[in-house]
Amino acid sequence: MVVSIGFEGSANKLGIGIIRDGIVLANPRRTFITPPGEGFKPVDTANHHQLNIVLLLKEALDEAKIDPQEIDVVCYTKGPGLGSPLVSVAVFARTVSQLWGKPIIGVNHCIGHIEMARLITGAQNPIVLYVSGGNTQIIAYSQKRYRIFGETVDIAVGNCLDRFARLLKLSNHPSPGHNIEQLAKNGKIYVPLPYVVKGMDMSFSGVLTYIEEFATTLQEYTVEDLCFSLQETVFAMLVETTERAMAHCGAQEVLICGGVGCNIRLQEMMSEMCKERGAKVFATDERFCIDNGAMIAHAGAEMFRVGVLTSWEDTFCTQRYRTDEVEVKWRNDI
Amino acid sequence: MDISSKDSLNCSPVSAELHIPFPSAHLATVAYNSLRVDKEPKRSTTTKVLSLEENILKASFTSGDTRQLRTAVNSFLDLLILVSKAIDEFTPPDFIIKECPLMI
């Protein structure tokens, strides 16, 4: 029976999660939200995490009703993500790991998303579409690695959505993507936007540039129309590349994870494609789609279970950390 | 006119030394271990060296640029304050730091 605690802060969400044997005991989160038109900068985000992490930990321990001595392993996000926020959380995790006398494990953020989504949905061997503000990857598990089949060649789809929201000065509360999704529901006109799929990969920066350059001509369309058109375009790109990966692997399951995975329209479009192929779509709700501590706790617990620990010198953080760099020793399937 | 020769704030190296006492050598060691892992950002000309003397954590900064030095010292102090908050709130009673098992 393993009790693990996970600390996540690679972007503007600070999350602490406590898990016992695959059951989430607590998973509180605080989001650093900037005014409309502004994105979150690393230093301000690091500041936010430093200011909130002590209270958040108390909240997590209270909610889980456990004493720190019951914890078996302290897990934190090693990367990828923003430098100073990652380090702020890592320094804190290193400190409590020493104070409580527990081993520490550095977890890959992307793998945290994948493993949590697998746990919650029960998907066996899906093609994973991992889509967030910082990452856009299509992943398939093979021989102890999460292999990246396809990915964005420039910005993440969530980054495209976030910056689009900034251009239109939409509110960032609770998240820019959420507000785009709500507005899109009332969109009536589809505006053709650049659709860029290159084999297994995708490009999203062209859509942004197009909207920036043609802002004046696009003024005849409502915000709702633009949100609707953007979603239909970028989500179709994601569905196309996911389908291509499924065809390559003969996969019958798709697992959507990452913050953009909360989007119901994306889930709908993916379901339509999967229905045509006789496949199933799995997705989690915003407790686990959006960055959270429990996903780090869970992935860390899996690593701990098979004896993968992190030496002290290796508890550094890294802004670039490829999903396929990690040996997935805890999975026994091929 | 050579701009750099008019910048009197750029006679390098500039340096700063911090001495931070803790209530015990155990707690100073906790802070030292937490803070010594991360390297300075790649683009910075600042180097940071941490050391321990009983219950005093020492941090030595050297930089080619005063403004970078300020940033490095400020970031370090922010993280140090974070460590001390964690120590204040989460140190178990009768805390003694475990030596080798953690530092594999």
What does it look like?
The complex is a heterodimer of chains A (334) and B (104). Chain A has 334 residues and is α/β, with parallel strands linked by helices. Chain A has helices at residues 42-64, 83-100, 109-121, 157-167, 176-184, 205-213, 223-249, 264-277, 286-289, 293-305, and strands at 3-8, 13-20, 23-26, 29-31, 73-79, 104-108, 127-131, 136-142, 145-151, 197-198, 201-202, 253-257, 280-283. Chain A folds into 2 domains: 3-114 and 289-314, Nucleotidyltransferase, domain 5 (2-Layer Sandwich); 126-286, ATPase, nucleotide binding domain (Nucleotidyltransferase, domain 5, 2-Layer Sandwich). Chain A is built from 10 helices and 13 strands. Chain B has one domain (12-88): Alpha-D-phosphohexomutase, C-terminal domain (TATA-Binding Protein), CATH 3.30.310. In chain B, 35% of the residues lie in helices and 22% in strands. Chain B contains 2 helices and 3 strands; from the N terminus they run βαββα. Chain B has helices at 25-35, 66-90; strands at 14-21, 47-53, 56-63. The mean pLDDT of chain B is 87. Chain A binds chain B through residues 46-47, 50, 53-54, 57-58, 68-69, 83-84, 87-88, 90-92, 94-101, 103-104, 309, 311-313, 315-317, and chain B through 30-31, 33-35, 37-39, 41, 75, 78-79, 81-83, 85-87, 89-92, 95, 97-98, 101-104.
Please render the helix and strand layout as text.
The complex is a heterodimer of chains A (334) and B (104).
Chain A lengths: L2 E6 L4 E8 L2 E4 L2 E3 L10 H23 L8 E7 L3 H18 L3 E5 H13 L5 E5 L4 E7 L2 E7 L5 H11 L8 H9 L12 E2 L2 E2 L2 H9 L9 H27 L3 E5 L6 H14 L2 E4 L2 H4 L3 H13 L29
Parallel strand pairs in A: 1-5, 5-6, 7-12, 12-13
Antiparallel strand pairs in A: 1-2, 2-3, 2-4, 7-8, 8-9, 10-11
Helix pairs in contact in A: 1-2, 3-10, 4-5, 4-6, 5-7, 7-8
Chain B lengths: L13 E8 L3 H11 L11 E7 L2 E8 L2 H25 L14
Antiparallel strand pairs in B: 1-3, 2-3
Helix pairs in contact in B: 1-2
